[in-house]
Design goal:
Blueprint lengths: L1 H64 L1 H7 L4 H25 L5 H20 L37 H10 L2 H5 L4 H15 L2 H12 L2 H31 L25 H16 L13 H4 L6 H5 L6 H27 L2 H22 L1 H9 L3 H30 L3 H20 L27 H4 L18 E3 L4 E2 L9 E3 L6 E3 L2 H4 L9 E3 L8 H21 L1 H10 L6 H17 L1 H11 L2 E6 L5 E7 L1 H32 L3 H8 L19 H6 L4 H4 L2
Antiparallel strand pairs: 1-2, 1-5, 3-4, 4-5, 6-7
């Protein structure tokens, strides 16, 4: 009986085992299909988001590479270019709160796609003035344009003399000059950059959150790291594109290039700045297309289905059958959050380490953003390099050094398990040695070019105090010249003259770039002069300048790397010095402060300071002051590097204060707080073990330093 019972049980189990196996097989099959669709979907989103990061980084860096081109094309000072550059941050700030809050409720991929379309529209708008302003006109002596007419640059006959600057401007205005010049077209560039800022806003918060919601937890950090890596590659291609477009003449395809009488080395040269924006706009459109076909939700990975943490999107979605039950709870939660806002703000700003690090970051970002914005201009004016070569050097040398520095900082932190105190020391050391290296660049500048009447007198002596009056001398007193013209020629004595007329030249031969001027009375009176002839274009910088430029490149690359090493430790310090429930709020305040107090004002006041070093301003065709034609090299070096170093030094003092507070703070405080269920603020020992666990958070959060440490 016992045996038969066992057999019956065995028979029953054999009969029931088949359906169990089938159901388990089906569940395993469906699970594997779901897993494959999940992995495939998130990888498609990852590829699309990486391409968008590449597109926005490319267009942003391309704008930096065209700063001098825009300045010359629209005849505007550096301070106004700084306003245009800062308009991107203004556009970003206009909707960052709306996008961050409402974006989580809506279709996130499509919002990113819409952002790409807005970003591309802004990029196209920046290029539009080129097609409405007419052809670019530079100042040139008539005989260099039309070879059939031979005029004397020095017009001794008063009846042939040109009109005064005021009369000439009035005549052009009466002839419809206002329509031709388009003096306010730069507003379209500003509005386009503002639109770029608006379109870029949803990409970072919504894209990173989408990956964090639907990626396998252990893969999220890797995915976000891939996106950030591509974001660093974008500026390399942006500056290389800027280098390529700067070689091409601004009106390429619209004028006969053989008739162009200036070269890329001329300060009046404007490259095809608009062409790169069209290319960047097309790339932005292509980058946004995949997001219109991606789903609102992806299948959750198995490891997260039973997780107590829900996705950002699901926190905002209310199921229809639970509306009534959750509405009261949501209202209570919102009221609680509003009530807790000011205590949280007080708690945050009552944290001495956080507030000191925030001040240090704001001042350091002012230094870095101003330095990066005008670095191409500094290289062009200080070392006499073309815009094309300048952008090529920055894109191929400086940006890879920044990327390697960021990677090295994170590697050092992880390799040696550095805690908060060590991170503060590493960040401080990086800033100290970086700015110390920057100090050596004061000795690596070029002297002013010899420009008669501006940097040297017409007899080779020291320049006078009043530069405008010094443009006229006895040697050109018989000529009817305008002091507003800028059409430089190079005398055989190695001195540059503002124009052939101011050089006293009475004859010319040839046309275009090969024009040669003869019987130049001012060239013949110079101390070392053996001849009185001159050729078109300014003279080259001194023989020592190319060597100084090489030294500058080496120190600049090392400085970029050194400053970038401290980026990751500094960010770790920020994350570890705040309570966990205030972390998102603290990061939001940090990003807002950096954008408002550094991203917007720094390019403006750096531009104003650089404008003070101008020796010779150009004049607009309709009257008024245009772009600067010649800078005082020594003054530019002291203003540009000096302002960067002063701000950097002040930020170092704040960093020292952060380190001092950390040393003074007793570590047992962490133990007390952890006993109450909270992690402490800025413990020096208890944070070491948590470093690896926070890698994903570190990589998923916006870090603007990697975009500015060039």
């Amino acid at each position: 009986m016992e045996i038969s019972s066992k057999e019956h049980t065995h028979f029953f189990s054999n009969n029931t085992v088949v359906p169990v196996d089938r159901s388990s097989f089906k569940s395993e099959s469906s699970a594997s299909k779901e897993r494959q669709s999940c992995c495939g979907g998130i990888k498609i989103f990852l590829g699309a988001l990486s391409f968008v990061y590449f597109a926005k980084a490319l267009s942003g860096s391309y704008l930096k590479s065209t700063i001098t081109q825009i300045e010359r094309r629209f005849d505007i000072p550096s301070s106004l270019v700084g306003v245009i550059d800062g308009s991107f941050e203004i556009g970003n700030l206009l909707i960052i709160i709306l996008v961050s809050y409402f974006g989580a409720k809506l279709h996130r991929p499509r919002i990113i796609g819409a952002g790409c379309l807005i970003m591309s529209a802004g990029t196209f708008l920046i290029a539009m003035p080129q097609f409405f302003m007419g052809r670019y006109r530079y100042e040139r002596f008539p005989s260099t344009i039309n070879s059939t007419v031979s005029l004397s640059p020095c017009l001794q006959d008063k009846s042939q003399a040109p009109l005064s600057a005021l009369e000439k401007s009035q005549a052009k205005i009466n002839a419809g000059c206002e329509k031709e010049a388009g003096s306010s077209m730069w507003i379209y560039v500003l509005l386009g950059n503002l639109l770029r800022g608006i379109g870029e806003t949803p990409i970072q918060p919504l894209g990173i959150a989408y990956i964090d919601d639907y990626a396998v937890e252990e893969n999220a950090a890797l995915y976000i790291g891939c996106v950030q890596t591509v974001a660093i590659i974008g500026p390399i291609f942006g500056f290389l594109l800027g280098s390529l477009c700067a070689k091409l003449y601004v009106d390429i395809g619209f004028v006969d290039l053989d008739s162009v009488t200036i070269s890329p080395k001329d300060v009046q040269w404007v490259g095809a700045w608009w062409l790169g924006y069209l290319i960047a706009g097309v790339i932005s459109v292509l980058a946004g297309i995949p997001f219109w076909f991606l789903p609102k939700h992806l299948p959750k990975p198995d490891s997260r289905k039973d997780s107590s943490t829900s996705s950002e999107h699901s926190k905002f979605i209310i199921e229809e059958d639970k509306d009534r039950r959750t509405s009261y709870w949501q209202q209570a939660k919102l009221a609680e959050m509003a009530k807790d806002f000011f205590p949280s703000l007080k708690n945050l700003f009552g944290n001495p380490v956080y507030i000191l690090y925030l001040c240090a970051s704001i001042i350091q970002f002012n230094s870095l953003i101003g330095m990066v914005t005008y670095k191409p201009k500094y290289i062009e004016q200080q070392y006499g390099q073309t815009s094309s070569k300048t952008n090529f050097v920055i894109g191929l040398i400086n940006i890879p050094a920044v990327a390697f520095g960021i990677f090295s900082g994170g590697l050092i932190m992880k390799k040696f398990g550095i805690g908060v105190l060590g991170a503060a020391k590493l960040s401080l050391g990086s800033s100290f040695f970086g700015y110390l290296l920057l100090l050596s660049l004061f000795a690596m500048g070029c002297e002013n070019s010899d420009v008669a009447g501006l940097t040297v007198s017409y007899h080779g002596a020291k320049p006078m105090t009043d530069y405008e009056e010094a443009l006229f001398s006895e040697c050109n007193s018989g000529c009817s010249c305008s002091e507003n013209d800028w059409d430089p020629i190079c005398g055989e004595n190695g001195v540059t003259y503002v124009s052939a007329c101011l050089a006293g030249c009475r004859a010319s031969n040839g046309s275009g770039k090969s024009t040669v001027f003869f019987n130049c009375s001012c060239v013949g009176t110079f101390e070392s002069s053996q001849s009185s002839s001159a050729v078109m274009g300014p003279c080259q910088k001194g023989n020592e300048c190319p060597k100084m430029f090489l030294y500058f490149l080496v120190i600049s690359v090392i400085t970029s790397y050194t400053l970038s090493v401290g980026g990751t430790p500094g960010y770790i310090l920020l994350l570890r010095c705040i309570k966990p429930h205030l972390k998102s709020f603290a990061l939001g305040i940090y990003t807002l402060a950096i954008r408002v107090l550094a991203g917007i004002p720094a390019p403006v006041y750096f531009g104003v300071a650089i404008d003070t070093t101008c020796l010779k301003w150009g004049s607009k065709r309709c009257g008024g002051r245009g772009a600067c034609r010649l800078y005082d090299s020594s003054a530019l070096r002291y203003v540009y590097l000096g302002l960067t170093l002063v701000l950097g030094t002040v930020s170092i003092f704040f960093s020292v204060a952060v380190l001092w507070v950390l040393r003074k703070r007793p570590s047992p405080q962490d133990e007390t707080l952890s006993a109450n269920g909270e992690r402490g603020a800025c413990g020096t020992k208890s944070r070491k073990d948590n470093f690896v666990n926070s890698d994903r958070l570190i990589q998923s959060t916006y870090w603007p330093e990697k975009e500015t440490r060039l």
